[in-house]
Write a structure and sequence with these properties.
Dipeptide-binding Protein, domain 1; ABC transporter substrate-binding protein; ten-stranded mixed beta sheet; disordered N terminus; transport; alpha+beta; Dipeptide-binding Protein, domain 3; four-stranded antiparallel beta sheet; single chain
Length: 520
């Protein structure tokens, strides 16, 4: 999801907003205290632990509070974080040197054992980590000295450092072992060594961060960040306009015109590291039939849908990778992948080859009040033209998210996922590995096999032209078998009142660390 550059972002289920407005807006954003930022998400953060909260809102907070062993620089290249340096003694191992003198915000020293544990925990089935697919090639992580951590892989993995910059967030071993299932919850919280510390975390009344004055790195310009959740897009826009909220990143490209003209507000758009798509549950009734899936792909007017959802600030997706990853891998020499262009005659012909030539009816839940609702209504209208009836069932966004993450009665799901590296191996295991088809995984299609898993394992250590060849083969299979229908790539945006400035890049891990009072 980067090449035109990408946002240092986190895997995000933008289709699946959560919960209700976190408290009522209060006057006094940029006007009351210039080093206090009042921020609003359109989706509630659900965990301070990436193992249980791998979504945009949650991870934005996590990366302001928790340090990672490595970071990504402005070009997306791994750079020092908690680790000042690392070596690769063998193709399948890394040895990291830990930064000296780092402490958690309670004053406890951060140790090599904490760092090793914080990676190993994602491999523990008892944790059921949502980030587990990032570390499928990790065999073990261990402290091998007071300031040394060794990571042994099952095979070489060129993407290991890049994905570690997102998901290898370091917490105290003692805290993590005591709370394998509920670390990061409002009841337990978390403990980090990052530029901010959490002083309040509530799913209903919001989150408050304060600057960690003992932070080992550059101190944030902001003293305090107050975080709200405002689900309704127009309510959020009015809150920013009035000054009740200083900034937000949850504004959709199709609403750009409403935001760019707001007095006293600067809106900045930048290329997103995303792929929006439909997942077709290949084990569910008619969706088992590949001809049905191809018929659905032909019947959807993806160009019209892309224009509708991106407001002209996006592009049609032609394969199941974000644009920056496509460019990083292929450059200008992108293969012509099999496609299913909008063609109702072709759709009807494919349906005629299926076991459902006269069409069928299927119940499809969706998250009400979200972009997913708009997409699913358009999809249902398109499919009705070939005899496929989708009975759309609105669900509260939080309940829908929980249901989808549990893989409960999956059918046709809209998703818009944002990733954090230029590595295809960050995305493909999410889409087609059998492990990701389990609850808390992101393979909502259920597509996969032992053979596909073996190919993903081989891809993890591939380089050069062989890497391109293997990715191309997997993307071609996805295009032919249609467990997914790529829809569009969009832009991300940040809106800030004029009392604040920020230099947002595609690899920016957290808005809170780069936002500062204007003129400071």
């Amino acid at each position: 999801m980067k090449s035109p550059t990408i946002r240092a972002a986190v895997v995000a289920l933008l289709l699946l907003p959560v919960a209700a407005c976190a408290g009522s807006a209060q006057k006094g954003g940029s006007g009351a205290d210039r080093d206090t930022l009042v921020w609003a998400f359109g989706v509630a953060p659900n965990s301070l632990d990436i193992a249980h909260g791998f979504d945009t809102a949650s991870t934005t907070i996590q990366l302001a509070v928790l340090d990672t062993m490595v970071t990504l620089d402005a070009k997306g290249v791994p750079a020092p974080g908690l680790a000042t340096s690392w070596t690769q003694p063998t193709p399948d191992s890394y040895e990291f040197t830990l930064r000296k003198g780092v402490k958690f915000t309670d004053g406890t020293p951060l140790t090599a054992d904490d760092a090793a544990y914080s990676l190993s925990r994602h491999l523990d089935p008892a944790v059921t980590s949502q980030a587990a697919s990032y570390f499928t090639t990790v065999k073990k992580a261990e402290a091998v000295g007071a300031d040394k951590v060794k990571v042994t892989l099952t095979r070489p993995n060129p993407a290991f450092l890049a994905v570690s910059a997102i998901a290898w967030q370091v917490v105290p071993r003692k805290l993590g072992e005591a709370h394998p299932k509920d670390l990061g919850s409002p009841e337990v919280g978390t403990l980090g060594s990052g530029p901010f510390k959490v002083v309040k975390f509530s799913l209903t009344s919001g989150t408050v961060l304060e600057r960690n004055d003992a932070y080992w790195g550059p101190k944030p310009a902001l003293r305090r960040v107050e975080i709200k959740t405002i689900l309704d897009a127009e309510t959020l826009r009015m809150a920013v306009r009035s000054g009740e909220v200083d900034g937000t990143d949850i504004l959709t490209p199709r609403e750009a015109r409403k935001w760019t003209g707001l007095p006293g507000v600067t809106t900045t758009f930048y290329p997103a590291n995303n792929i929006a798509y439909l997942a077709l549950a290949v084990g569910n009734g008619p969706l088992k039939d590949v001809h049905v899936r191809r018929a659905i792909a032909h019947a959807i007017n993806r160009k019209a849908l892309s224009d509708l959802m991106t407001g002209g600030r996006g592009s049609l997706a032609k394969t199941m990778l974000p644009l920056p990853q496509i460019t990083a891998l292929y450059g200008d020499d992108v293969p012509d992948f099999p496609d299913h262009p909008f063609d109702l005659a072709a759709a009807k012909a494919e349906l005629a080859k299926s076991a459902y030539p006269d069409g069928f009816t299927m119940s499809v839940p969706y998250a009400s009040g979200t972009d997913g609702a708009t997409v699913m209504q358009a999809v249902a209208a398109d499919l009705a033209k070939i005899g496929i009836t989708l009975n759309l069932e609105p669900n509260p966004a939080d309940k829908y998210r929980a249901r989808v993450m549990e893989h409960d009665r999956l059918s046709v799901q809209y998703a818009n996922l944002t990733y954090g590296t230029p590595e295809p191996v960050e995305v493909l295991p999410d889409m087609i590995s059998r492990g990701a088809a389990e609850p808390q995984g992101f393979n909502f299609s259920g597509y996969g096999s032992a053979e596909v898993d073996a190919r993903l394992d081989t891809l993890a250590s591939a380089t050069g032209d062989d890497r391109k060849k293997q990715v191309t083969a997997l993307l071609t299979e996805i295009a032919e078998q249609v467990p997914y229908i790529p829809l569009f790539h969009s832009s991300s945006a940040i809106a800030l009142r004029d009392g604040f400035t920020a230099s947002v890049g595609t690899w920016t891990p957290s808005f809170f660390t780069i936002t500062r009072p204007a003129g400071s």
